Amino acid sequence: MKVIKFGGSSLADDIQFRKVGAIVTSDPERRVVVVSAPGKGVNDPVKVTDMLIKTAETTLERGVDAGKVELQKIIDRYASIAEKLGVPEVMERIGADLAGLLENADLSHPAAFTDCLKAAGEDNSAKLMAAYLTSLGYPAVYVDPREAGMILSDEYGNAKILDKSFDLLNKSLSGIKEIVVFPGFFGRTESGRLVTFPRGGSDITGAILAAALKVDVYENFTDVDYVYAVNPKLVDHPTPITLVTYREMRELSYAGFNVYQEEALLPVFRVGIPVNIRNANNPSCPGTMIVSSRPVDAEHVRVAGIASDKGFTSIYVSKYLMNREIGFGRRLLQILEDEGISYEHTPTGIDDMTIIIRSAALKPGALDRIVERIRSELHADDVQVTVGLSLIVVVGEGMKHAVGIASSATAALSQAGVNISMISQGSSEVSMIFAVNSEDCDKGVTALYNELF
């Protein structure tokens, strides 16, 4: 059995729906289909999820009647696809579902209301896909995640799977003889409230179902042939990655690769199910396989890929004899925790420590409060803040078996005129991280790619 997931670009219009139908029906092992909301199409430049978010915002700001104007555009979008696919009758169900979102709206809890609207994109995409597959002669059934056992934490827009869900999903889905069409992105809390995963959460849904059903492979269809070793916008014809490990993909996703939602690896990683990333527009291409391990001998690349992400801030703290002050690091991180901020990296020296955080996590005034507390509570000799940093990450399981990767990388950055603000490498040696000024980021990535590939 295979679980197969399609992203929004694969479901943007009736043409894409037909491609998906052909892919699903070409392989009898594809028994569970996870769908996203329709994405941008040739004649539809806005993603349905963005349209739903706008509907929620309009309703909260200007009332239900104003929201209905925006909602009608979404209903029309689904109706156009359904008509062209030859299943207009499904719109009676989809139209009623969408209209009910505002007719029964509880605006007293904006986060809950917004999650309900966001989830409607995937939910009605699944109803439409089930109707279309059935019309092709392949009986399919829409399954509501809330009824199937997709139980999530009570966090609107940032929910996480609860362990009990895996057994519940296995029991509810295993006996279904038809093709299961399952909407991604949402589930319910233990108390029954609808909640969503973070954006891109349909990848997470697919991985959860793959793990729950213990399938042979989880196929994730998107709009690229492969995951590439570097951003194709920076390098012409970059090296395709045909085989990559879970750890490598996790590092690359963290650092800016947007092909695969980074949290989606955890469920399949735990049970060792391979993930096959493929192109819905070119289904004959074998794509990229994400597996537990890959060969790292001389015939295979030492480095899997290079990624980058912008929008980081560093806080440098210096204090003489810091290394002898028990609890200094804990108290420093406690200041960040009090502001609700998680740290990304903490390179250290004998008498100094640098905290790398995402700039977007800093609320207004937070940075000034953090610096003041470090000075007054920790009695630091020096505190320096640097904004506008980017992280470039070189990733590869094979680096631990090779000599000179760091030397080659730093030399390439030096020759490109890129100043390195920080270097960090964990003991696992899966990744090597360079902090650079954001204006030098793309130049640094290109230089590293040319050197290492």
Topology readout:
Elements: E1 2-6, H1 14-25, E2 30-35, H2 48-62, H3 64-85, H4 91-103, H5 110-135, E3 140-142, H6 145-148, H7 164-173, E4 179-183, E5 186-188, E6 194-196, H8 202-213, E7 217-222, E8 227-228, E9 240-241, E10 243-245, H9 246-254, H10 265-271, E11 275-279, E12 288-291, E13 305-318, H11 328-338, E14 352-358, H12 366-377, E15 382-395, H13 405-415, E16 420-425, E17 431-437, H14 441-452
Parallel strand pairs: 1-2, 1-7, 2-4, 3-4, 7-11, 10-12
Antiparallel strand pairs: 5-6, 8-9, 11-12, 13-14, 13-15, 15-17, 16-17
Helix pairs in contact: 2-3, 2-5, 3-4, 4-5, 7-8, 8-10, 13-14
Description of the molecule:
The protein has 14 helices and 17 strands. The chain has an eight-stranded mixed sheet with strand order 3-4-2-1-7-11-12-10, sandwiched between helices. The protein has a five-stranded antiparallel sheet with strand order 14-13-15-17-16. With about 450 residues, the protein is of the alpha/beta class. The radius of gyration is 24 Å and the shape is globular. The protein starts with a strand and ends with a helix. Helix 13 packs across helix 14. Helices cover about 40% and strands about 20% of the residues. The model has no long low-confidence stretch (mean pLDDT about 90). Strand 1 (about 1-5), helix 1 (about 15-25) and strand 2 form a beta-alpha-beta unit.
